[in-house]
From TrEMBL:
Protein name per its UniProtKB record: DDE Tnp4 domain-containing protein
Coiled coil (UniProt feature): none
Domain of life: Bacteria
Keywords carried by this UniProt record: Metal-binding
Amino acid sequence: MPTLADLGYENAGDGFRHPHKKPAGGELTEIQQTYNKVIRGIHGVCERANSLLKTTFKALRRVNLDPSRITKIAAAALVLLQLEYDRTV
């Protein structure tokens, strides 16, 4: 499954999608610029959701569980937030 990441994960492998870097002395193509805008837009929404979950549920601030377990906990927390605010994040 492709995973969105920032430039810190640039050489992490094929499963990570990160923005294109501007080449030295060059410019990004229009397609690369559009791709970066899409990544930034999605990243912003995800960061906001993550922040809301962590500020609402103290248990999610420092987690060192197996990724599949934390995914289930975060999904349950998201459902609780949706019920509380009567909308999706």
